[in-house]
Amino acid sequence: MPEEMDLVKLNAINRYVKDVQHMRLSSSVANDLRVRANDVLKKILIEATASAKSENRTTIMPRDADPVIERIFIGKNLATGEIFQLIKKLSPIDLGQLSKLITEYIITEKARTD
Fold first, then answer.
1. What are the structural domain ranges in the chain?
2. Which of 14, 16, 87, 98 has the maximum number of C-beta atoms within 10 A of its C-beta?
3. Given pLDDT bands bounded at 50, 70 and 90, which one contains residue 3?
4. Pair 7, 42: CB distance under 8 Å
5. How many angstroms separate the first and last alpha carbons of the chain?
6. With b meaning 16 or more CB within 10 Å and e meaning fewer, what string describes 83-99?
7. What is the pLDDT of residues 34-93, one digit of tens each?
8. In terms of C-beta density within 10 A (0-12 exposed, 13-18 middle, 19 or more buried), how is residue 64 classed?
């Protein structure tokens, strides 16, 4: 299976938006949705496959996919080190905005507890 195989097709996204939502979709948004959806599905399948293989199975079961889906879509509490790894990927502008948000949060919490 090619690495760049599309699991979500552009036509399916456009058809859904047109037929179900009765809207039009710009080509850039449609393509961005396709790329992101493909990335998420591939990540789920890669991790679920690893889980199944670790139990010497050739079938991906709900117990393989469900934890990955929950982590991606529901989220999880990240450890400080994991948060830092994500922060390191931010641009300088985003880091400045994050710093401002953290400062505002600290001021608000301090005022609330005083």
1. 1-76, 78-114
2. 14
3. low
4. yes
5. 60
6. eeeeeeeeeeeeeeeee
7. 999 999 999 999 999 999 999 999 999 999 998 888 888 877 676 788 788 888 888 899
8. buried
CA distance 105 to 95: 15
Domain 1-76 has CATH 1.10.20.10: yes
Question: Is residue 65 packed enough to be buried (19+ CB in 10 Å), middle (13-18) or exposed (0-12)?
Answer: middle
Element (H, E) at 104: helix 92-113
* 0.85 exceeded by pTM: no
58 Cβ partners below 8 Å, 6+ apart?
A: 52
pLDDT (average), residues 11-22: 96
